[in-house]
Amino acid sequence: MKIIYLTDIHDGLHGLKKILQTTEADLYLFSGDIIYKAFFSYDRIIDFCGVQEELYYLLGEKKSDSTPFDFTTLVIRFPEKYPTAVVEKAQTYRSLYQLAAKTMKEKYEIIEKLIQKYAESPVYCLPGNYDLDLQYTELYQRDVHRKSFELGDLKFSGYGGAPIWTSGIPEKLTVVFHEYTKQGQNYSEPEDFFREQMPDVCVIHNPAYGFFDKIPGVGNVGSQGIRRFLDDESPSLVVSGHVHEDQGIAKKRGTVYVNPSNFGAVDSVHGFQEGGYFAEIYLNGKTVVQSNLCQLLNDEWNRLIEVDCSGESLELIRQNPISKVSSEDYIRGN
């Protein structure tokens, strides 16, 4: 089986079309942050982010765990209880919120049309922290969040989202990453889900703790619960994303972990990240035998680093001289 895996597409719809047109696979997996911006206009983005963040600040002052959506519902329903400035802010927020949701749904509709027109194999998608819950979009039939599917001899299970608030995204319509620590006890819905499903392939947006989850200046941000599951069990493959800066492939106790980094270009606090990256993954039965890091640039894609995954440890097959990613950085310790 050949899988083509993309994560953090970030509105890179032109590139997505090229991949569907010019590659062949038995399965395509898109793992989170399919969308990047909730509006087509940067002025709208600034307006929505501004009022959303002001409302979060106001709620923080009130020591309220309510969301801006729930708070503005009360303000609009009982305007006499709030200052005029707060009422106006609530009305602005709700108007932009509805426009953001509409715009994002239109983008998912475009993606579904691209898939229907160009994909010749099954396509499954996972929402990230920049996405709406895909159940509210045209991609609902492809959604694998808290769901499983089987293809060939393999069982795939997915858990999307990330434990982070993403400015500019309608928070009421996003996927909540249900993992938290209370009174010294860690509760993890993704851990419970994977233990119940026992998949051969784990499809996640937010990585497991210690596997491609290190953000410069911050440290490891991955899921403790998913890590506990992986320490106890040995699925064939774990594909993740979210942390663009921690790109690589690893193998531990028979499980291959892959984060090819972002497919869509993004500006971040760590600088411009050109993206275009994706992975080709080959399995023989339930064994990952090879994985290639690829990159789409200027409408052409190349295999950058080819890795033999069939043995106990990962082995470099070939590195393309054009690769800006070194095999020493990409292939991690086993």
Please explain how this structure is put together.
The chain has a single domain, classed as 4-Layer Sandwich (Purple Acid Phosphatase, chain A, domain 2), CATH 3.60.21. Helices cover 29% and strands 28% of the residues. It has seven helices and 19 strands. A seven-stranded mixed sheet has the order 3-2-1-16-17-18-19. Strands 4-5-8-11-13-12 form a six-stranded mixed sheet, covered by helices on one side. Helix 2 (42-61) packs across helix 4 (84-118) and helix 3 (68-77) crosses helix 4 (84-118). The model has no long low-confidence stretch (mean pLDDT 94).
Q: How would you summarize this macromolecular structure in one to three sentences?
A:
This protein has 334 residues and is α/β, with parallel strands linked by helices. Helices cover 29% and strands 28% of the residues. 43% of the residues are buried.
